Automatic annotation (TrEMBL):
Swiss-Prot/TrEMBL keywords: Membrane, Transmembrane, Transmembrane helix
Membrane-spanning intervals of the chain: 7-25
Source taxon at top rank: Bacteria
Protein name according to UniProt: Uncharacterized protein
Length: 251
């Protein structure tokens, strides 16, 4: 009898554990919040930030959502959400999103990386250009030659008359990022980095008006981040076209 009770107790614990794991980690997302609810959560989460209008609700995938909004102070902000532990959680709020952010949804998988922005119409941003760059590196040591070729890729994005948007990593960019990470584990690259010759990738961007003229988004930059969850976000730095006038374009 005692043995049967132990078996039943053990099975009950397994069942409870399964239910808990399924509930918190495996269950499908429920319906996302209404605009009214979103405005309330944003306003209550970020002190001093009052969301006046939800511009859009964009699902990046089933469990990650991008919500651009306008504040009562006429700031064009963004908020990021994810489904975790059986509820929708706000991850990050940016009150002015003219400096795009890179969200590394799965840090070790570059194909999950997405860039986001939201510009004040006063800045008249109509088009953007993103660049993926690696500087050329070369050195010799003990008869060995270490060389990392230059990478310079560009991608132009039209805003299609919207102030906000997102840009998923192109497959080529993802492959390069993965190869760079794999190369970083090799001894020769480690040696190169240790001696002041890092082989790292960087991303920059430039904005243009409807006539294709470069324009700096003064009213949309210098935004503040209010990070709620420990997700990985990175700034995408602005760069002038003139800084790359002599570089080869690899589209």
């Amino acid at each position: 009898m005692l043995k049967n009770k132990k078996i039943i107790f053990g099975l009950s614990l397994l069942l409870i554990a399964f239910i808990v794991i399924y509930w918190f980690y495996l269950s499908k997302p429920t319906v996302f919040y209404s605009e009214t609810r979103l405005k309330k959560i944003i306003s209550n989460t970020y002190e001093g930030e009052y969301a006046k209008e939800i511009q859009d609700i964009i699902f990046i995938d089933q469990k990650h959502v991008f919500v651009p909004y306008i504040s009562k102070e006429n700031g064009y902000g963004v908020s990021f959400w994810k489904w975790q532990h059986h509820k929708w959680k706000i991850v990050n709020i940016i009150d002015k999103a003219g400096t795009p952010r890179l969200w590394k949804i799965k840090p070790n998988d570059p194909s999950s990386y997405v860039m986001f922005w939201n510009y004040n119409p006063v800045d008249q941003v109509n088009e953007m250009k993103f660049r993926l760059i690696r500087e050329r590196n070369y050195m010799m040591s003990n008869g060995n030659v270490y060389y990392a070729p230059e990478i310079f890729l560009e991608q132009r994005i039209s805003l299609h008359k919207k102030t906000y948007g997102f840009f998923k990593y192109p497959s080529k960019w993802s492959k390069i990022q993965k190869l760079e990470a794999e190369a970083g584990t090799k001894q020769n690259l480690f040696f190169l980095q240790e001696h002041g010759y890092p082989s790292t990738l960087s991303i920059s961007m430039t904005t243009y008006d409807k006539n294709g003229k470069e324009v700096f988004p003064e009213e949309s930059v210098n935004g503040n981040d209010y990070i709620v969850e420990d997700d990985l976000f990175e700034y995408i730095m602005y760069a002038d076209d003139k800084d790359f006038v002599d570089r080869d374009r690899n589209y």
